[in-house]
Amino acid sequence: MSNNIPTHVGIIIDGNRRWAKARNLPSLEGHRQGFENVKTISRHAFERGVKILSIYAFSTENWKRSQEEVAYLMDLFRLMFSQEIDRFVKEGIKLKISGSRDKVAPDILSLIDKGQEKTKNCTKAVLNICFNYGGHQEIVEAVKEIIKNNVSADDITEDLINSYLYTAGLPNPDLIIRTSGEQRLSGFLTWQSVYSEFYFVKKHWPEFSPEELDLALVEFSRRQRRFGGN
Hints:
By secondary structure, the protein is an alpha/beta fold. It has helices at residues 16-22, 27-48, 67-83, 85-91, 106-118, 135-148, 158-164, 210-222, and strands at 8-12, 52-59, 93-98, 125-133, 175-178, 197-200. It is built from eight helices and six strands. A six-stranded parallel β-sheet has the order 3-4-2-1-5-6, sandwiched between helices. The mean pLDDT is 96.
């Protein structure tokens, strides 16, 4: 494994339902397996030296799915934002939630706030869950807040805009991985991904293994990042 490990990795976890369908399983089982794999892959990423892992777990468009599916996903988030917190503290993982609070049930918002508060002093790594997240909405909300705060046009810089985003305080992702064969961002970290490296894999998220992550990290280490230079 190369020493050139990306500081910040983002993953678009796609293909839970397709994984389940291919095995004649209910789509909800695909989401359950996907939830378990978030724990597996995040632990492996941090062991490899990744400092920040951003997971695209639920987009603002996902509310359009069936009521049963959305309810099941919300229950999975309740589990993550409650039962996993003590493990995060033990392992030094800071929980950050990036996304809108709109439409989210009050009990989930309370769990989010408690989880972030309880892990705020953890320093080994950051697990950034992009929950109720949309890249365009993030920018729109940032602009609204900037206007609300009467910021002068002359004072608007990239750094200032960064400070108003959901991801404020985090560096931009070095590497973005998407599973399940699709080759698009689908609104994931729209502002932050301008110089990210992309890695697409055909395997569905529940079958994306630690070995697959290692392959992505090796591929990243081979790339030359010039950031617009020669």
